[in-house]
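User: I'm writing a short methods note and want a consistent example. For Phage terminase large subunit GpA-like protein, I'll paste the sequence; you return only the structure tokens, no commentary, since I'll be parsing the reply automatically.
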Amino acid sequence: MDAVSDPLIEEVVVMKSAQVGWTEIINNIVGYFIDQDPSPIMVMQPTLDMAEAWSTDRLTPMVRDTPRLRVKIAEAKSRDSGNKLLQKRFPGGQLVIVGANSPSSLASRPMRVILADEVSRYPASAGIEGDPLGLAYKRTNNFWNRRKLAGSTPTIAGACRIEAKFEESDKRFFFVPCPHCGAHQVLKWEQVRWDKTKAGVHRPETAHYVCEHNGCIWDDADRWGAVLKGEWRATAPFRGIAGFHVWEAYSSWVKLQSTVTAFLEARKTPETYKVWTNTALGQTWVEKGEAPDWQRLYERRSQELTLGEAPEWVARLTVGADVQRDRIEASVWGWGEGLRSVLVDQRVFHGDPAKAEVWKELDAFLTEEWDTPSGRRLRMSKLAIDTGDGYSTTSVYAWARRHPRVVMAIKGIGSFSAAMPVMGPTWVDVTVRGTKVQRGVQLWTVAVSLFKSETYDWLKLDQPIDGEPYPPGYIHLPQGVDAEWLQQLVAEQLVTVKNKRTGFSKREWQKTRDRNEAIDCRVYARAAAYALGLDRWSPAKWTKATGVRLAAPDLPDVDAPAGPAEPDATTPPARPPARPPPAPPKPRSRAINPLTGKPRGSHFGRR
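Assistant:
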């Protein structure tokens, strides 16, 4: 807040974790410029919806409860009051609240103060206008005393807007003195320690901080007291941009026990670990895109597993199908507790996807079953099929339309910043008036980049030794998997690509060889498992699913998420004997009318 009001500093950048008072900083700066230095102000949120929420939930209560602001912003009683949801007028200036996804709200508005919130979640371009943050900053060119503030929790390394801005700044970190030895230092996650029991059970309640200079032990009270005596220090030359980094260890609202507990829970999967790294440490997540060595994978194939048979611990089967111009390839993956997985089968259906013959083979494929060693029979719960590159899309839609309970049509996107790995569905079949067609095709969107990163992380897990349990996510490869398939499984590499038009870099997957159907099918099968809700299954449910007969196909799993219903994964039981047909109703006796000699009600009186 001091840097924003410093006449020598034009731009301020804050890379932060969540819940460190950042929104209050924006509120305070807005109040300062309204009351002390009236100016045209723009507050920019990632979307218009978030802009409206900030205006309603944060700005309005602050103005209402602050006398010096309340007298300067008129009450919203009339159309010309100057107090609207996204625009507030006050003597000497105005406050405009915009969304980064709205190009019209960023144009033709000269502004002296720009306050940009959560910039890492801005779209790459506001329509066709270009970078929304750059568009907003151009609004300040007419002011010699302009002020620009941008802050956000970071996202993916190399593709994060706030990270790029912070690298251009003087990189200020908060140095605190050790309560015992007085040595100044920056708080680091690596210095947080906690105890374990002899059995290896973590004890978050023993979390403490260790001085990096002399090993002094700090409890929470020591840490909070040190923060009160800390100071900001720049670690790079000042070139017009003041940059600050802060994470939740500096917050007086967070105990280290809570941080450690969240860490132990988050590290179970790469996706939750990434979110924790961004929101708790305020650091970018580095996507590890190095492909595992296919030869090492070939050597570690399990001697106990055979292609075509499902292990006993498998509870559900999902299938990923990749459509090519002359064939359709499908991989059957089995899933167990902790999202352990195994390749159960691999099929290739030769033929032109534009013709009916290959789809007839897939019809028969949907009814196939795979046995476990105990004789339990499994059938696929869900098949995710790519809608193709355009030449076979209509054929895929037509086939998916015939099997709405088992088949999910998907479309892959390469974004690492997707809100969810699997999104949707959206209706593809609509009438000319835009209404949804009953029993039409639903299209699911899959963030394939996230699942590829997860797959490569899980392929790198080491095999357990001395009877230890398999780690969550471990991928089993059976005998019968050949070298060509394994090379397809690791046929992509994560690289950093710079966009020449916007100047921003992004991470994307690129093929290292022509054929990569194995990794595509794996990702689609993983998306199907996610859609079934397997990520949220409890250990008790996994045990139940593998130990007893599952629900009948017509009954969806009670714990499955909203979306496509989950069919049974085992052979359905024999149908009960049909009930005997109901007896024909007895003819009702009708009284005779003595006047006419006919049954009563034959002409009138019917109801």
